[in-house]
Amino acid sequence: MDSASICADCGAKDPEWASLNRCVLVCSECCYVHRNLGSHLSRIRSLKHGVWSKEQLELIRFLYASGSNNIWEHSLIDPTSSNKAKIKPIASDAVIPTKENFIKTKYSQLLFTLKPSRDETSLDDLNRQLWSCVRTDRVETTLRLLALGADVHYADPEKQNTPLHVAAKENQPLQVELLSLYGADPARPNAGDLTAVDVARLENHNDLAARLEEIQFEVTDRLSLFLCGRRPDHSRQVHFLVPELVGSFQQRMGPTGEIAKVRREMTTLSGKQLEKLSQDIYDEIDRRDVVRAWNASHNSSQTIDIGSDQFVAVFLPPNPALSATRNQLRQKLAKYDTADFATLIIDVLTESKRRFYDLPVKNEDPVVAPPSKTRDSSKANSTQNSENPSLLFDDGNRDYDEVAESPRSKSRTSNLGKRWSANQSESGEKNQTLHPEVTLDDYLELKEKLNESNAKVRDLTISNSTILRHLSSIQEMMTELKNDNIKMHAELKSQKDHNLALLRRNPSPTTHLHSPANAPVPFAKPREEFYGGDGNGMPGAWDAHAPKTFGGYSTVRNPPPVGYGQPRPVEKYRGATSDIPFFSKYADALIKETEIITDAIRNLLTDAQCNMLADTSIKHAITISRLIQKIAVLIPEPERTRRIEVVMNRMVEASNVLTDCCSTEFINNDKTCSAAYDLAKTVKEYLKLVTTGQD
């Protein structure tokens, strides 16, 4: 690696470890924490003492130089934010708790990780982007899409080509490496029954085809490498390397040995069970290799500040995606000593090889042939063998364990590129028919899943009851709103009729004739009251500006109307100290918009009751937000009063809260229904305030 490289988690210089699935480099202190995360979060490997292929090492180097760490620290790289300086530790900080808390937050909780944009909310969109991106050499973009949740197993509907097929066709080796790290299957066929290996060969990308074939046998090759120190030569069509035990271990592997019954049960496993067992053994081998590399690189002169605690798990950390039963079985693999663990690996390799070549089960003969040479093993040799598993085996001057010639093996020579796990499944189904008994592990795992399902059903029942209560309350409130709307419509109609009656009673100004000054006054009210005087002998506004008479006739052509001294109809709805006018001209439009938003809230609650809110919450949030904005701008700003502004702001705030509830990754039905209920209450309050002037 580049000498200028720094640790992705604390900035320490010259990191000696790499996280394969995160594509970052870390120092020894941060590696101390990564080892406890588990391979499902961070598959750690030593740069100096680990087992690497040149393609994997090139991928890690390229991605880290391209800024792969920015994906996992996306929210911390904002230059205007000071959060990075406050949150991210430095090299001199203690491992526990400072670095440990940051690393767990970064990789386990994914708190700082790049989040999907509004255009990338659909998983199908992400998958299509991934499918297109692997055509190019933009590996960093592929990693970003995978971090956002794109599926490496996505296949186009027409030809069923996966991203791995596309990368193989376009000769993109780094894309192939990255996809395989995230679980892409090189043996998966497309609609034309072609695997990624076949596609690479058809395009004359022979080096890439050879690498894809190695990836196809990655698990069994890793098991053979752990035992023998070398891998099978797939270029010679040798896909399995099964070593032979020597000494006392050979007797244990015989048909009458102490574990003969357990070994025979290996053939009864289904393909899925054997696949799970192989994966668990692969992870345990990875853990043991990390321990060996750690001991080789960590000497007494190298101190690590780990605070008051010093603990690294001596078994595989639990994976929340797996059942508790399987996690316990995975952890028990750490109790196996070298001989027992090697025996288990040989059993898995032997059974995998038998199923790949579709060989018959030999119940009478030993599964592993006796060695070509006999050796005496002493107690001292046994101790030495426990340190180096390869000393337990004898290859008899053979580099590879060749397959015996048989009609079955010859007939399958042309199909070596097909997925061997498919053959496992077929063989497993046959074995399950012959051996229908259920193991205790299967029973315990099924029982645990049943308990989890029952707990989920109980939670859903409680949630459904809560939603029903909220729905009932909102339905009652909507009924009340409808009644209020009908009542307000009636009041508006009555007010309109009253105004028309007043207009009909008032004479037209053109009908007022010039009258003499001594003509009788049409009202028996004092002059100051008629003209708006203050009652204290002071003339009102009209009296102060009253024109003088000339020649016994008034110069006023149009005196004040007959009903001038009466209050306007709108004032009847205003309190003595209220500053809220009666907005009758906006009432009809507001009532119409209120009915629309009531229907929108009802649709949201119906989806919540049917557990469909996760798929439709964004649509509901956008619809309701637009309706609230439309209501908010219905009354022009110059005409709004202080009270209306307060209630309007509360209504907009309630809409924002509902939008936030609908925009989260995991929708909380109870919280969303409560937010919808609060919004409906504020809309009702706003409608009542505008139409009647009352709260």
UniProtKB/TrEMBL annotation:
Where composition is biased (Basic and acidic residues), the residues are 395-408
Instruction: Map the ANK repeats onto residue numbers.
Output: 159-191
Gene Ontology molecular functions: GTPase activator activity; small GTPase binding; zinc ion binding
Q: Where is the composition biased (Polar residues)?
A: 379-389, 412-434
Question: InterPro entries given for it?
Answer: Ankyrin_rpt (IPR002110), Ankyrin_rpt-contain_sf (IPR036770), ARFGAP/RecO (IPR037278), ArfGAP_dom (IPR001164), ArfGAP_dom_sf (IPR038508), GIT-like (IPR047161), GIT1/2_CC (IPR032352), GIT1_C (IPR022018)
- Report the superkingdom from the record: Eukaryota
Q: Which GO terms describe its cellular component?
A: presynapse
> What start-end ranges are recorded for coiled-coil regions in this protein?
none
The name under which this protein is listed is Arf-GAP domain-containing protein
In its UniProt entry, the species of origin is given as Steinernema glaseri
